[in-house]
Amino acid sequence: MTESEPNTRPPLDGVRVLDFTWIVAGPTCTRLLGDLGAEVIRVENEQTLDSIRFGRPHPNGFDPPDSGAMFNWLDRNKRSITVNARHPDGLDLIKRLIRVSDVVVENYSSRILENWGLSFEEQRAENPQIIYVSLSGFGHSGPQRDFSTWGPTAQALSGLTAMSGLPEAPEPAGWGYSYLDHMAGFTAAAAITAALKHRRETGQGQWIDLSQVETGMALTGPATLDYTVNGRRYRETGNPPGNRAVWPQAAPHNTYPTAGDDNWIMITCTSDAEWEAFCDASDHPHWRTDRRFATLPARLRHQDELDEQIGSWTAGQDGRALMQRLQAADVPAGVVQNGVDLVLNDPQMKAREWTVTRDHPVIGEHLTDGLQIRFSRTPAHRDRPGPPLGEANQYVFSELLGLSDERIAELQMNGAMG
Amino acid sequence: MGALEGIRVLDCSDPKGHFSGKLLAGLGADVIKIEPPSGDVGRTYGPFLDDQPGPERSLYWWHYAAGKRSLALDLHSSDGIELFLELASDADLVLETYQPGRNRPFDPQALADYYAELVVLSLTPFGQTGPWRDYAWSDAVGLALGGPMGSCGYDNLPGTPPIRPTEHHAGHISGYFAATAACTALYERQESGLGQHIDIAMHECMGFTIESSAPWALYEQHPLIRQAGRHAGPQPTEPWQYPTADGRLINIFGMPRSEASWLALVSFIQEHGMGENLSDFELLDGRKRQLGLQQPSVAVMLADIAEFIAAHEAEEIYAGAQAAGAAWSIIRTPDECLGDEHWHARGFFVDVEHEERNRSVTFPGAPYILSETPWTHGRRAPLLGEHTSEILCGQLGLSQSEVGALIAAGVAR
User: Where are the beta strands (DSSP E) in A52-141?
Assistant: First the structure.
């Protein structure tokens, strides 16, 4: 699992992706493909730049469009070219690129590529084997295809926002970030790799129509079935349940305060054995024999008292020491970590070199994060920083498309390449 | 024909891998779910048909095992593991979720080394190495340690903990990495003819799935403030969730960016005789409408919008705002999603026959529409051991009486 071993090729080596994505959902997909070794070419336009290029933080001072940490995090391992699709010569460049690409990915609103003259049929006319992914909020069919989403919009519409929160609160806690931007991106990556495998066998390309809201609804199976099978609406039973268990039933199953400001530990006992181990590892072995807590049904009935007693025991204790003590007794327990903890305080991440130092022409030395998929024979990589705008113009237009320097200069002058 | 048609998967996963296996089955692979003869633990997860527990009544199982076949075989018995290794000689992929130090029935790397063409995918909480590799785990503990939960919670309810979103999301997040890894390795194998071992740590998958927390942590070591129903951020931002007249909530995060869309939204609201301050000249400037900066102009705008939302019903607000180009939404529960005609028009919800119960059940369907190799929900979830004989006789050539002996010995079911 060494990175960048000599004589190994990453598994998607040789796959070329024409990447029209922006913000988070599409770039999540193409980051994964880039890590896996695909050549990802971001097609950008100077008039409508990806706003992530401007997003904070800017670790080495604000120097747009190449200084943003978010962009460098999400768009590593990619190349960048500048083309204006609304210019006839720009559109022609894109069509020529489609001919030498394997995959086209975009996450615009559902009519943009069609309006450019790049519907799936038009793409297929250029390249019969092309794999095209349209990643939109509502998909490219149906009465609401012109509705639009951001991650939070899609989370709310799919049911996922409502399924996170405290039962007594006036509103759900939902997700503190665009979960469905990530998940739609992962969904697209899975679909693309499946389609590549199919194409290598059959020569057949295809169109993958992906709706971000559908990717979310696909994650609500048991709750949806409780309605379609049992007729039970989600909120009938006091949902959302805070940090208590839904299924499988378990108690204790909650967050408990530990020493310091806003520090918490999640403790979950999903079996009597884990509960007994927990009692023995705590300073309260008598909990085992307390009739209110002796069985799972009893613990569920007395969950308020149970949580209160555990919470008074954990409060003031060092969370990480407590986690280790409970884990030594084989009790599922983990502190709530934020991003900074993952980077600085997580021995597991350190041991597996989740972060490594890389260089960037504007940002300089910085940390980049993990390869989630570790192949024994064809390792993924994370060596190339997020691309400065247009850094690959020469490579793509001259080497890949074989345009002369005169023609490239002309296209720069007439606005097709900008 | 599915994209993974002809691919055989031996799926030895517990709930950590149930979603990955489902994704592979939906893409057309023949997924053989290997369960212990006592039944997969997922069969004990509710909700249950008519609220009565039972191995064939788990709606969790109905959802996550759909499209798979069931082989009930005890991999911790010597007969069981021998039969498994024979099956593996003819399989394309093994999916397993055993933690390395927890009595696993086989060594995944050794298995991959032994069968050169086999892809062995290990999806485990923390991976094959490192000090936490055998830590006791649950989906909620995974979300706590992995980062997603740290960004979710309330800013307006002091003293409340971070909140973990429900419904097995550690499994969902890493399930997509597993499916992508599987397809990628199979794609690569078409050229090299070789399989390999894949080590996926769910912890690392979650570490990527935290959006802007990651760059703020990697570059500035700056933690974010969690906030109700909206993005955690370096500074507090304005609320996005507003109550409607019919007791629901609207999320207004997707405010119009273009002037045309903004003017359309303003006229929609003003047609209802409200939103007088929205005509404020200052708000024509998109920057003055930008949420998250605590601008006075935004405070005025949101006060009018909140008042409008409070006086109207959710569906009307949602339809009107979206028609104006604002990406607003209703905060729906899963049951409410079934009421939206758009998803039915796209064929998202699918009816699946449960023939032994003489009923058809509506499921959430495909996460993607593939034009040439459609995702399929597949057959209803398998009964415990439903395909044991079919697989042991059909694929390994055992006789019915040999299978009977294995069943009598408790090795199979």
Answer: 78-82, 103-106, 131-136
